[in-house]
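User: Can you write out an input/output pair for a complex, sequences first and structure second?

Assistant: Here is one pair. Inputs:
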Amino acid sequence: MIEFKNVSKKFKDVTVLKDITFEIEEGNLVVLIGLSGCGKTTTLKMINRLIRPTTGTITISGEDIAKKDPIELRRNIGYVIQQTGLFPHMTIRENTEIIPRVEKMDNEKITKKTLELMEMVGLDEEFLDRYPNELSGGQQQRVGVARAFALDPDVILMDEPFSALDPITRNSLQEELVNLQSKVKKTIVFVTHDMSEAIKIADKICIMDKGEIIQYDTPENILKNPVNEFVSEFVGKNRIWESPEYIRAEDIMIENAVSCVSTLSLNKALDKMRDAKVNSILVVDDKTKKMVGLVKPKQIAKVKDRTVPVKDIMVTDFQSAKPGDSIVDLLKVADENNISEIPVLDESGKILGLVTQNSLITTLSQQYFEDGEVL
Amino acid sequence: MNVLNYITNNSDQVLRLTLEHIELTAIAVGLAVLIGVPLGILISYFRKASKTVVGGANVVQAIPSMALLGLAIPLLGIGSVPAVVIVILYSLLPIIKNTYTGITSLDKGTLEAAKAIGLTKSQVLTKVQIPLALPVIMAGVRISAVTAVGLITMAAFIGAGGLGFLIFSGISTTNNSQILAGAIPAALLALLVDNLFSTIEKLVTPISLQQTGDASKEKLKSQRKIQKGILAVTAAVLVVLFTVTAFQGAGNSKETITIGGKDYTEQFIVVHLMADMIEDRTDLSVIRKDNLGGTQVAFNALRSGDIDLYLEYTGTIYGDTLGYSPNSDMVEVYETSKSDLKELYDIDVLTQFNYNNTYVLSVKPETAERYNLSKVSDLRDVADQMTIGSTLEFLNREDGIIGLEKHYGFTFGEEVGINGANKYLAIDNGETDITDAFSTDGLLKKFGLVMLEDDLNFFPPYYAVPILRSGLLEEHPEVEDALDALGEVLTNEIMIELNYQVDELQRQPRAVAREFLLEQGLIEE
């Protein structure tokens, strides 16, 4: 765990960081984001003491880094920046092995580790004897990542590593980073100014402005609950449509779905639907309160004796959704089953709400209208 | 063709001087690198100091090299040490500047990455900064090395040897072949050095950063192997040559003394006359350091012990070194010189030689005829129409043109300072009308000039006289006899003839001296 406690930084008269306190949990990928000059890079570089705080303390796993030997500290923290980070006069092998070599590690171990790293970042062995300028930008960045992992550090710092790459390469590297992170579970601190990159890769996003942390939260919360105008501006109105998986059933369902107990007579059920102007009613068990079926007026119309309870004619084979299901899942269910309404049930099967045709259309249409408040 | 003849006839000398030249250059540039590169690195850390250091090196380079050489003599004496020191001073600027620029202009991101991944300061320097800056640093070294090859020719001025010796001697004796025999190898050497260093420059450029053009990396690699081979062979040859020459020097077990000489024909000859006499008549062996520049250089060299003796002139000691007003009394000038030098500098003055190398105003026969000139006082009415072309020294001396004009009561129309044999060429071309010849000068005979008699006894006596550093007479009293025997024989006529042999017939001073001594029976084969 990396902890910032009341950290400030002044360069001469300019305050670039104002009393920052936050924690980065172990195994999390945290993205620091903000406009240029917001203090995100300063914050990152403080972690390996490239920059020293003016006041405050930074601890890693409880140890104050100011009391550690900076060289040793840095060797235990991986560091990735844009392509310039590779040494142009060294081959890929030399670049990757530079720190293990100065640490005088065993030759065989180094060679073995290098091959592992190449495999990890998806580069062929033959690249080892080439020079950085013989590689594409994406390949160079892979080498940068490999080098950062050379001593198997617990913490890795990444300073806009993908920003100079073309969008396609950037996308695939972002995906690979997420995959890699899910395997190795390092603590990664990642600086970017690209919000979609942040949302895509982050466990938590730390939005900074003018040396202060404005919001430090999960991507989903930042998208749905921006703390202020700055964050929503920064995040962008329609940003959520880049990650529709964050639009969930519970966000768009109507909560007061019309329902009745299974023992209710058909007549009464019909009255209830008429009053509420709906064309279906959800049936719940009167004892367990679990949803057990669904009745539509069409079905009642076929029955002559309307004093029988709804449970005799209700459809028990119905589609339902969980509150965490995304709009993408809902649309899929609606499409595949040719239905227009999906009840949302909790784990025990009780009704939480109902996603209707109407609510789906309203939600989907919002991305095309300026003022649409999504959720 | 004459040059080729000269070089083939004197191949030993040309080869030795070339080696000396290479050796001096290598030492100077090597030391300049050892000083300049660390200094350049240092000021890249302390940027505030960089302006001062680079500025200082700039100033040094702005000082004319000859002036710097002159100023160094009182501090460092003569010979290779001051020459090398001065060439180092001159070579520093490009090395410091390029090192500084090379180190400070590296990509900031690369340097930050180096620091961030946990390299120590010295590892950043040795693994990243120096390798990346090396091509720029080497470019600086290359400039220095080429400049140094040229500058080392100046070293001959203070007796450090090298190809400059041939150039200076050639200028003094109007021997163009000799000048070229020095200049051509020096120029070739400069080109060679340039080429060699450009190869090194390419070799130290990381293969990844080299402009490859069409050549593939494989091709480059094999090319590099060949270049490395060439460099290795060159280095090996140099090492062998240096060790061989060093052993040759060390192999001499005899006691040696060093005889110095100034930078004109007569002095070249007398150095060998004195040296041959001493080597024949004593057990000493002699190092001959001729071509030491003017009086100041030679005298300082004697005081500092860089040379053991040289041939001075009584008038020069009296007027220049001791600073007395001009005096035409031969005995008084000699006695005062002898006692004062002993008292002030503990320098021994031996018996004066039989020839008097004083100033003598000379004109072309046509000029003498036109103005009816035979003695200096004849110039009174015509001097203001004449241009005198004389040595810079003569122009500025109380016993030169200043006193002369006062003494005879006339003023020359124009004065032009020309050193060495060029003043004879000037009078021969008609650019000047009259010159201050030396009365033993072979060029008088060569150019057929008419000497004007000093009828009012203005010019002081300039009898040749050996002067010895303190202590030499006690250590080797036998030197005095050898030199006395030589002094008796040398008259003005003989000196004119010997000078003529060298200046006009372009013979080697050493050969002329030896031949004369053998003819006279003063030494044996």
